[in-house]
Amino acid sequence: MSLTGGNRNDVTQLEPLLDKIPAVAGQVGSPRRRPDALLADRGYDHDKYRRLLWQRGIRPVIARRGEPHGTGPGIFRYVVERTIAWLHGFHRLRIRWERRDDIHEAFLGLAVCLITHHHVRHLC
User: Can you give the pTM of this predicted structure?
Assistant: First the structure.
């Protein structure tokens, strides 16, 4: 994970994010280091980013500007928005008070553990 300032444009972090994808064990052979496809919102709708993904062997599924909402990857957006809302339930993550990245990441990991525990407890 990489922390950036809150006023940074997300699209500037696309390439560093792709570089940090860990190897995923699975079938016999070398571990996968890239996803089959990348879903993105209209902010990534530019040929430059589509080419970057195709060069890495990743199929871009990027919403087009000017099309009505609810088409393309918009149907999956709720999952991401809901997860961010759960994290914002922890005031310390909503407004970043820590100056050190490692402490902020520790609180983020703790929040994810608490959210997961809450949801697993309801499944049992």
Answer: 0.62
